[in-house]
Amino acid sequence: MEGLIMAAQLLLALTILVGLHEFGHFIFARIFNIRVNKFYIFFDFLFPLPNVLNFALWKKKKGDTEYGLGWFPLGGYVDIAGMIDETKDASQLSSTPEPWEFRSKPAWQRLFVMLGGIIVNVILGILIFSGVKYVWGDEDYTKEEINKRGIFAYPMAEKIGLKTGDKITKINGKDYETLSELRGSITNENVLFTVERDSTTLEIPIPNELIDKVAQKNYFIDPIIPFEVDRVTKGMPAEKSGLRSGDKIVSFNGTPITYYQQIQPLIKKSANKKVDLGIERKGTSLVIHPVVTADSAIGFYPKSLLTSTKAMYSLPEAFKVGSVEALGVIPQQINGFARIFKGHISPKNALTGPVGLAQMFSPKWDWEKFWALTGLLSMALAFMNALPIPALDGGHVIVLLYEMISGRKPSEKFMERTQQIGTFILLALMVYVLFNDTLKLLF
């Protein structure tokens, strides 16, 4: 059920993003009096074969445009008259151009039509980021709160010299403010942590290749998290043994527990075993005896006792903060691609397919997380479409810029060939990420 909820959120997010992306092309085509034959959410054919399994779940003709919902749940498209795309080839454009066709318009107008989807995705991303800031604000842990107890170092962090209890005081010699800033710093190159450990100050370099291991979903660092039981799962050992919301777990088979990261490995090592769980409940000490499940679970959710800070914004403040954060996604994407080419990140860990994207969403419907991820995906979609790859908007833009500079318009046959090459590249990439997603899911 949780997988279906995550998949549904991804499908809704992509439907919104792709629908509005295609609307960007549509609206600019209409501004310049270019006829749009079709506007579809999803494909009404077996993509990328425009003449195979042609049918729609719903369609309606209004004016010159047929609006519809296709059966193949992958993106969507607009069929702009006189333009070579995934729905037509050069042979369909052999007649004399009509005044209302894309190919008969000046290059600068065609450029705006091709940029329309990217423009709308950027605007949408800014609006979503701003809306999230306005409705939910910003919640984070401050540097001071983290350093009351220090960080918990997972094995990957221990390998580079960090230890549990370390207090990270500076990043590249500069102060930082929040946990998000600390975690995000490792996406940059040549990072240096200044660490306080037992009254000693250390400088610990973060290897550039560490980001590749983090991309594999291995944990790096967290704050040390003191906790209490938030809620217990019905029918699980925690409930059956009497664990209650508000209980503090203070020992596990006699091992003292002061923070959440201590209990996780102990539970994992105790599958199918009866354990002694020491708890404190309203000043009273108790011991309960749950039997850990075969898949190493007891069945409770922790509540962090770290004190977070929450900032709420007025509408103008939210727009300012949201715009900066949304536009900041673009240099992050550029940096990510640069690090792939430098060998810091392997493509298989950097590229995420539908399974990986779905897993980013909450297993329970969470509107805050849904909109935050949708805004992020909108900016990422704008960036990806701007890449100079044939069949993507960026590929068309490069050809149009060449035409505007040289004064020479490429032939329809050339445009058809570049479209075919681009489609092949995109399909190969899709197969790669799907295969990669499957491997991650299995292993």
From TrEMBL:
Localisation: Membrane
Residues annotated as domain PDZ: 229-257
Pfam families in the cross-refs: PDZ_6 (PF17820), Peptidase_M50 (PF02163)
InterPro entries: PDZ, PDZ_6, PDZ_sf, Pept_M50_Zn, Peptidase_M50
GO cellular component, one term: membrane
Organism of this sequence: Lacihabitans soyangensis
Signal peptide coordinates: none
The entry's keywords: Hydrolase, Membrane, Metal-binding, Metalloprotease, Protease, Transmembrane, Transmembrane helix, Zinc
Main localization (coarse): membrane
MF terms (GO), sorted A to Z: metal ion binding; metalloendopeptidase activity
Root EC class: hydrolase
Cofactor entry: Zn(2+)
Family: Belongs to the peptidase M50B family.
GO biological process assignments: proteolysis
CDD domains associated with the record: cpPDZ_EcRseP-like, S2P-M50_PDZ_RseP-like
Topological type in the membrane: Multi-pass membrane protein
Residue ranges crossing the lipid bilayer per the database entry: 39-58, 111-136, 370-402, 414-435
Name listed for the protein in its UniProt record: Zinc metalloprotease
